[in-house]
Structures are given as C-alpha cells and as structure tokens.
C-alpha cells in the first residue's frame, strides 16, 4: 500500500514550530506556514545548531488547505485559543485534521475547540527565535518530546518521529504535562521575580519554598486525577535547575524583553484549579502577588 503523503502546516514559525518544520523539510515533507501577519508568498528562516547554520524556505499556506493537512501549533499559552480559532477559520479546514498542540502551562479551551483532533505535545528541547531581517531559530538545547496519540494511530506520527527526534508516542501524557507545569511554576516565577539564572535555585535557602510550591501543586494535580510523587517532582525541579544552571528561564527572558509572560497559564491556572477543588495554594498565591507587584 502506498503510504499517505501528508501536508504539514505550521504557525509562525516560532522557536519550537520552526525546529519541527526544519526537520520536516529535511525529510522532504511538504510544509507550509501560516504566519500571523506576513503577506509574502514564502517564509524563510535560518536554523542555528551548534556551529551549523541552515536556511529553509516554505510557502505560505495556500487556500483551500489540502485534505491531508496536519497542523503544528506551538504558541505561547495566551495565544492558544486565538491560534486554534485562526486555523479552524481557514478555508478547507476539517475538524478531523490532526493538530499537534504544544505550549507551556494549561489552557481551558471553549467546547468547540476542545472537540478538535488535538494531540498535546510536551518537549524539553530548548530553542530561541529572533527576528532581525530574517527569522533565526537557535536550537540551544537538545531534549526529547512526548506526543499524545490514540492507540490505533501510527500515521502521520512516524513521520514526525523521524523529523523531530526523539519523540515518544503515548496514549495519555497528562502526567508529563503536570510535571512540566509544576517545574515551570517553580522555576519561572522565582527566577523572574529574583532576576536570577536557573542554577541559583539549587541553593539551600530556596528549598523550603520550593518544597511548599511542589507539595501544593501535587495536591492540585491529584484533584485532576493526576497522581505525582512530591519527592520525585522536587528532584525533577532540581534536575532541570542543574541542567540549565546558566540559563535564564523563558519567563525571565520575557520580563527582560518586556514581553507578555505565561504566568496566568502557569501559576494563575494552578491557583484557580486549586480554588475550584478546595485546595489552598498559599505559596503560589504569595509568588503571584510578588510577581504582580513587580510587573503589573
Ligand atoms: N522555545 C522553547 O525552547 C520551548 C521549550 C518548551 C516549551 N516551550 C513552550 O512552547 C510554546 C511555544 O514557544 P516558542 O518559544 O516556540 O514561542 P514563539 O517562538 O513565540 O513561537 C510562537 C509562534 O507562533 C506564532 N503565532 C502565535 N499565534 C499565531 C497565529 N494566530 N497565527 C500565526 N502565528 C501565530 C507567533 O507569532 P508572533 O511572533 O507574531 O507572536 C510565533 O511565531 C510556549 O508555550 C513555550 O513556553 C518553548
């Protein structure tokens, strides 16, 4: 049987979606881009990896979109709803089309959007996008990724596994999403408030606050039927802080560059979900108050 040829449509491209799109282009896949504003016919970007620079070019998505389209939507959490609305409004869109959805934090989707063919993706790759004449995506840290798929599906995901390795397919990635949420809810606000690199959080003076943040978050996760071990989560926070010791967190970078942060979809989401379930999150609330006092 001839394998189905898919057409990959990516938004942006941003840092994460640009990494994925580059891998798809390298593998000879058909790729197009839905930019936010650009009216050009083609989009070019450069991928910088170690000392290597490679240039890529993809056409802007033509309408109506092909029937065999698969979407890559990797956007900031506060853009998720508008991004999904954007693609569902494209001529030719069909709600059975697979959408790979990658973002930090958690977003409550309106019913119509939650019924789309969504495949959450968690990634630990590190990439930064800059736009200085040309879009430049710098792949700063190799990581791995997990994609939520249904049991019976192997296509188009084997293609994505080749283009964006290593990619693990799992039927439920809720635990991974919550673990990532907890890690981000510790590292991002603390480093943004105290304007420090991630490695600073390894110091003893932070540990009792970090343990409280983790314990509260684990209790909230349990109300969502996600059972995580608090000691393991604390170890994971420290592991990420150690592995990225010299890095500025994405939230600190956003603050420094006066960009909107994902605090509402991280700490804000955790507090709100705790409130709805009757779980107190005073340490997160204190952190949010401090954050808002500085950056509101
Ligand atoms: N970068 C990383 O290393 C990394 C790692 C793990 C997780 N994450 C998470 O993954 C998510 C994406 O991060 P990122 O770093 O890839 O962000 P990014 O570089 O800002 O990329 C997002 C891209 O999507 C575009 N976009 C947003 N809404 C759109 C729309 N409606 N139509 C067309 N384009 C649209 C943005 O355009 P504009 O430029 O016009 O806004 C931007 O090009 C975030 O939640 C982030 O926290 C990132």
Query: How large is the share of residues in beta strands?
Result: 15-25%
CATH class wording of the largest domain: Alpha Beta
Number of strands: 11
Shape: globular
Structure description:
The protein has helices at 15-26, 80-88, 111-114, 157-163, 174-193, 207-223, 230-243, 250-256, 267-277, 282-295, and strands at 7-11, 30-34, 42-49, 52-60, 69-74, 99-102, 118-123, 126-132, 134-141, 145-148, 167-170. The chain is α/β, with parallel strands linked by helices. It has 2 domains: 7-172, Rossmann fold (3-Layer(aba) Sandwich), CATH 3.40.50.720; 175-295, N-(1-d-carboxylethyl)-l-norvaline Dehydrogenase, domain 2 (Orthogonal Bundle). α1 packs across α4, α5 (174-193) crosses α7 (230-243) and α6 packs across α9 (267-277). The longest helix has 20 residues, at 174-193. The model has no long low-confidence stretch (mean pLDDT 96). NADP nicotinamide-adenine-dinucleotide phosphate (NAP) binds next to α1, α2 and β8. NADP nicotinamide-adenine-dinucleotide phosphate (NAP) binds at residues 11-12, 14-17, 34-36, 74-77, 79, 82-83, 86, 102-104, 123, 125-127, 129, 250, 262.
Q: What key phrases describe this protein's structure?
A:
296 residues, alpha/beta, Rossmann fold, N-(1-d-carboxylethyl)-l-norvaline Dehydrogenase, domain 2, eleven-stranded mixed sheet, 11 strands, 39% helix, binds NADP nicotinamide-adenine-dinucleotide phosphate
